[in-house]
Amino acid sequence: MPYVLPSDVNERHVAIDGAGTLGQRIATVYAAGGTDICIYDVSADQLEAARDYVERNLNHVQQTLGLQVPRSGKVSLTEQLREAVHGAWMVIEAVPESLELKQAVFAELDRLADSDAVLASNSSSFATSRLIDDVSHPERVLNTHYQQPPELNAVELMSCGKTDEGIIDALMTTLPRYGLTPFHVRRESDGFIFNRIWAAIKRECLMVVEEGVASPEDVDGMWTIFVKPGIAPFELMDRVGLDVVLAIEEHYAANRPGIPDGPRKLLREYVEHGRLGVKRGRGFYDHSA
Fold first, then answer.
1. Which of 19, 114, 211, 240 could bond 46 through an S-S bridge, CB–CB 3.0 to 4.6 Å?
2. pLDDT at 124
3. Which domain covers residue 223, as residue numbers?
4. What is the per-residue pLDDT for 171?
């Protein structure tokens, strides 16, 4: 049977393992959405800082994410992991980016958490497939990569390779209730979705400046113009025409050795099927309407 959310999920809390910067932000989102939270950390000072952060930012998060709930979630703190995870329907790991530490944490969470609890890692660099060697129930483990909520409210969901698909389906349905926008990472990928895209943008920005093509101010000025209308990359390619995009990419590849062929292969498939974008009614999107 595929995983389904517990019937008493609305009466159970979310546990946050780690009271650092992202742990505080994630905790605030769930509290703002009306779910009780319990934050665990080994530092009493860090726990108090987390409580202060949640209390100071609760209203801002609710307004930013458009959350209207009868009550905000209660915040509790503990220096005992067993106490934090007991009764939680989901446990979110937000500890420092150390592989050995995260592996140890997930072995402990698997041992202590309720049997129906989802075990989620917020890691931005380690796929959960690397964290489950000592986990007895990997089917409930996955990456939930939060960006910087509430303003950057995307959450990337990626399987550990053994994750019950029902868990991803359940979170895709549940997270929007907290003003979050989930995205399913459909295969394991270093960097998930956005960080891979941002890495390429960042690299080219640095190259343009290093080569003397433009100043940082000019790069940022053009970036501001292009992102202001909110035209997304695949939508923009459809507007330009995928045959034109392919010709441009072929030119780059001929003049810049080392550019991978995968993107051009994808474009060729669309072009060969006559899916050229807006001018033909179909590209990456259907424009027939």
1. 19
2. 87
3. 195-280
4. 98
Cβ neighbours, 10 Å, residue 188: 15
pLDDT at 199: 94
Give the pLDDT of residue 1.
75
pLDDT digits (tens, 9 = 90+) for 132-182: 999 999 999 999 999 999 999 999 999 999 999 999 999 999 999 999 999
Please give the structure tokens belonging to residue 52. 């202060």
Is residue 30 domain-shared with residue 89, that is, in the same domain? yes
Query: Could you give the C-alpha distances from 71 to 34, 35, 84, 218, in angstroms and in order?
Result: 6, 9, 21, 47
Are 40 and 86 in the same domain?
A: yes
Encoding tokens for residue 279?
A: 């001018």
Comparing CA positions, the residue from 250, 237, 247 lying closest to residue 278 is 237
**Strand-pair category, 118-121 with 90-93:** parallel
Strands across the sheet containing 90-93? 75-78, 37-40, 14-17, 90-93, 118-121, 141-148, 152-159, 181-185
- In this prediction, residue 289 carries a pLDDT of 80
Regions of the chain where pLDDT drops below 70:
none
Q: Counting Cβ atoms within 10 Å, is residue 210 exposed (0-12), middle (13-18) or buried (19+)?
A: exposed
Boundary-marking domain end, from 151, 166, 185:
185
Residue 1 lies in a domain: no
